[in-house]
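Hey, can you fold this?
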Amino acid sequence: MNTAIFPGSFDPFTLGHMDILKSALKLFDKVVIAVGYNMQKKGLFEVDERISIIKESLKGMDDVEVVSYTGLTVTFCRQLGIKFIIRGLRTTTDFEMERVVAQANSRMAPEILTVFIPSGHEFSFISSTVVRDVLINGGDASLLLPEGVDISRYIKGK
């Protein structure tokens, strides 16, 4: 089975992430969405909440697994026996940053390949940062989130 990992903080999982995931599923039999703990970022949502939000988004998508992890992505890939890392690209700025990370990963784990997938133009403006800003300021982020996600259940008290 051809499996890839799609790592990120997903704080929260957006329509842009879903777009990348759907494209990845055209290339791979299975995708593991790996929600990383990043001690340098204080997220709006806890990791377990992010996982729940993602799972709400994936109704009927049996070829996707959602997990959390700590440490280096390439180390986690090796633990799972996964040889491909999916990275979504919205802009050339994303590419420059992701290229550097991919080169470092390749140096540490040459057997693991990073696959860049560009987002559809209609999703290129969507980021978790934009969604968080909308939510924090009391706006309606539903048009930026996958169908079926009730973000209000998670945002109360934040």
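Oh, and this one too while you're at it.
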Amino acid sequence: MKEESSYHLPLYKDCYFHVYNRAVGNDKLFFKVENYQYFLSRVKFYLANFIDVYAFCLLPNHFHFLIRINEEDPNLVSKQFRRLFVSYAMAVNTQEKRKGNLFIKNFKRRWITDERYLLSVIRYIHLNPVHHKLTKDYRNYKYSSYKSLLSNKPTIIKRKDVLDWFGNRERFEEFHEEGKEKIEEDFYNFEIE
């Protein structure tokens, strides 16, 4: 499996990354249903010109994205992520009448250089709510890109690219179903700190 993981790995143009972060301590990132949609709107606002999004999942205390960098300057992309986190944290802190950091200071990123690993990351991201016992059926989880990838509705997700990687829509669905059988093995390989 070819991947590198770090809090400080440069976000180089045309590279794919599994990006994730979590709330500090035992806090949540998303306190209300509206927070999930607001976070995605902030992702679009701060990052749409700098990255392509291929998969995502938002969970109460953490999130995952599979992205490709479109920007030459890796520092600018990191700065945009910081702006996203600060903007969202300020809104949630106001909403919840709380103070201080919401996110762990540095978001983690894994550089993906292997196509097989890329496909496994997509499945890992979509099966995450099952692993964390938020749902029994990943296909019904509201805050992931799984449904968007199978829909015809407009989305910022690079739907065509993802389905092409799997060969077609049916193979995409089969690959996810196959993953249910080895969910613990996948999660052992991808566990986040």
